[in-house]
Amino acid sequence: MNWEVVTPLLVFLLIVFFVGIWSNRKMAKSDSFLSDYFLGSREFGGIVLAMTMVATYGSASSFLGGPGAAYSIGFGWVLLAMTQVATGYFVLLVLGKKFAIVTRKFQAVTLIDFLKERYKSKAVVLLSAGSIIVFLFSAMAAQWVGGAYLIQSLTGLSYTAALFIFTLSVLIYVTIGGFRAVAITDTIQGFVMVVGTFILLIAVVVSGGGISALFADLASENPNLITPYGQDGQLTALYISSYWILVGVGVVALPQVAVRAMSYRNAKSMHRAILIGTVVVGVIMLNMHLIGVFARPIMPGIEVADQVIPMIALEVLPPWIAGIVLAAPLAAMMSTVDSLLLLVSSSVVKDVYMNYIKPTASDKQMKNISMGFTGLLGIVAFLLAIQPPELLIFLNLFAFGGLEAAFIWPLVMGLYWKYANKQGAIASMIVGIGTYIVIHFYNQAYGDLLGVHTVTLPVILSFIAFIVFSLLFKKEAYEFPATSLKNA
Amino acid sequence: MRKKKYVEDTRYKVAHREALIGCGLAIINILWWYGFAYGLGSKPPGEYTYILGFPAWIFFSCIVGFLVMVLLVFIVVKFVLVDMPLEDTEEEEEVHSA
After folding, report:
1. pLDDT at A95 over 90
2. Are A35 and A42 in contact (CB under 8 A)?
3. Do A288 and A67 form a contact (C-beta atoms < 8 A)?
4. Fewer CB within 10 Å, N side or C side of chain A?
């Protein structure tokens, strides 16, 4: 085992672990367990809010899969990755203060709380909880696999042992610390990511003999690498542009992101988070994907795309700095997994169990159930990840797209269109998920329908379904309550 | 539980405007990104011009495009967004010091 690399990683895991303990102690002082465990009592300031949004969103695909794709495809993939800059400002501006005000009125702790109160429909709640559980669970398992692979490639441990370490370190702080532990560790992890990507980018550029030399090498190997069209000219402008929906504006509808848009303390925190988030997400995406392409002339012939970043880091950096830098992708995976874990847990415990199975549960019962279930979910993900599926980025994007198609219109239209009603929401979710699955398999078999990413058509079709069904069953205009609902 | 007569929350007006600003920023972002990438990047790679070592399309679309968005977001945050209370006034605050 390479202790010079492993030591910084261990230190990092220990810090994260202590944050979990600290959050647990802090939670003991809060009046409402559920609001604290699943939402951190809505107390986050600008930096924590920005970092937790970026870190939740930036996952294995931003740090391993994405740069790996840039390594094989070239600058077309860098261009594609830059669509994600929008997530920094778009989510917080579009959900914005309306979402913050309304969810406070509703006393909502989860995204589904909002949908439940807005549409007053059991079907909407169960559909949303179901799709969160199915899609986010698969995303979570994919991240679990990524985390284990990374620990495996750094330490030389067996895959199962690496998976065990990853599971244990995430489970402990999420289970006992809840949302606050997740958000605070996300902040630490976000800083690690920003600093790590800069160090690695500089080292890669220096090692490659400067930017001009790197581009000359790339152009002489295959000129397509420095065009926006991919190494074989396979990426059309339309296809890359359709990623604006998947990883740009569509991110607004990801439950793990949306729930953060109701977690901040006040308007000032939100303003600050918009600026910080835009800077941080842009820096991370640009740096990581540049590193991916620039790694190509330095280390040609890496076969497994996910290993590009660990290998280039170990190649161009002294071991202990590589350890710090590689804490970044580990941090990215942990910070995604922790949020997903908590969110899936909240969907089951808060949205299904508490709403429909046992509404009278006491605070203490809720506490035991929440923590117990969060732990259980982690263990199940661990067991599934022992037989890992191969394409990490693929599974992850599958979950992204499915959730976006399901939630984007019920969420956005529910906020901004007064004629939105439950029939529209249900139709929109069914059409969104249904067409997503159908088109996904169609695209796999016959190539991309109309030359765009799978998510594009379901988002358009679910919009049409939303409008048509809302108007078909048109009742009166919905008005948000003028005063807060007590004790929802 | 709910009042029959409804008074539109005045904060919503501001919130709606800010949501539209978010959409506006995204549209500017997409146009800039697309225009420079495919405006400058469509010709054969041999004819590319380079700025600071980067092909011009990458430099303008990915790097300058990002900086322009940061500048626009800064202007919006600093001069356009409005500070307002998010809680309803009669509600007791659930806030603890961080």
Report:
1. yes
2. yes
3. yes
4. N
What's the Cα-to-Cα distance from B69 to each of A135, A391, B55, B77, rounded to whole Å?
Answer: 32, 33, 20, 12
Distance, in Å, from the CA atom of B73 to the CA atom of B80, rounded to the nearest integer, reads 10
Q: Where are the beta strands (DSSP E) in chain B?
A: 50-51, 54-55
Is 70 exceeded by the pLDDT of residue A457? yes
* DSSP H stretches of helix in B42-89: 56-58, 65-75
What is the rounded distance in angstroms from the CA atom of residue A476 to the CA atom of residue A129? 27
| Tokens found for residue A178 | 């809840």
**pLDDT digit string (tens) for A201-229?**
999 999 999 999 999 999 999 999 999 99
Q: Is A132 exposed, middle or buried (0-12, 13-18, 19+ CB in 10 A)?
A: buried
Q: Is residue A20 over pLDDT 50?
A: yes
Domains of chain A, first to last: 3-392 (1.20.1730.10)
Per DSSP, the three-state class of B54 is: strand
Cα separations in angstroms, A189 against A89, A181, A262, A335, A441: 20, 12, 21, 7, 36
| Residue A448, burial from CB neighbour count under 10 angstroms (0-12, 13-18, 19+) | middle
Quickly state the pLDDT bin for A295 (edges 50, 70, 90).
very high
Between chains, do B91 and A215 touch, taking CB under 8 Å as contact?
no
Q: How far apart are CA A27 and CA A108, in angstroms?
A: 18
**The two structure tokens encoding residue B42:** 């469509």
Query: Looking at chain B, which residue has its C-alpha nearest residue A277?
Result: B70
Question: Is B7 in Cβ contact with A82 (below 8 Å)?
Answer: no
Q: In the numeric block, which tokens belong to residue A43?
A: 């107390």
Residue of B nearest to A237 (CA): B38
Mean pLDDT of chain A, nearest integer:
85
* Inter-helix orientation angle A267-298/B65-75, to 10°: 170
Asked if A94 lies within 8 A of B37 by C-beta distance, the reply is: no
A385: left (phi over 0), alpha (psi -120 to 50) or beta: alpha
Range A238-247 average pLDDT? 90
| Contacting residues of A for B34, CB less than 8 Å apart | 237, 241
A234 vs A150 pLDDT, higher one = A234
Distances (CA, A) of A462 to A97, A185, A215, A427, A430: 25, 36, 43, 7, 8
DSSP reduced 3-state for B48: coil
Over residues A18-30, the mean pLDDT reads 74
